[in-house]
Design goal:
The protein is an alpha/beta fold. It folds into 2 domains: 73 residues, no CATH class; 30 residues, no CATH class. Strands 1-2-4-6-8 form a 5-stranded mixed beta sheet. It has a 5-stranded mixed beta sheet with strand order 3-5-7-9-10, with no helix packed on it. The longest helix has 12 residues.
Length: 112
């Protein structure tokens, strides 16, 4: 017979949260194989997340969804960095200059 983890031991590794009418894993403390679905945070190593994740505080092989807040480790061995599309970059640069005519023209383009 194999050893079984106790509930107390399991709750040291994982906590759960009830959000928008459904239970989900809140935080995984330690290493995990695969998270199938959304999670609040991964603290440690994880092979794959198949869903959205709030924070990755360790190394993760693959995230098949969105990382909603931040990555403090790596994904597939690479440091995470924010990437903006050319459209997002143009909008940000126009807003930073404060040029009202450019901003108005950009907003009109976005609305079309």
């Amino acid at each position: 017979m194999t050893e079984q983890i106790t509930l107390e031991e399991a709750l040291k590794l994982v906590n759960f949260e009830f959000i928008e009418g459904a239970w989900r894993v809140g935080v995984v403390r330690g290493n995990c194989g695969i998270v199938e679905g959304d999670c609040g945070a991964v603290i440690g190593r994880c092979n794959r997340v198949r869903g959205d994740c709030g924070i990755v505080e360790g190394d993760c092989g693959v995230v098949e969804g969105n990382c909603l807040i931040d990555v403090w480790g790596t994904i597939s061995g690479r440091r995470w960095q924010y990437a903006e599309t050319p459209k997002q970059k143009l909008g940000r640069l126009i807003k930073e200059t404060g040029n009202k005519d450019l901003l108005e023209a950009f907003n009109q383009l976005e609305n079309n």
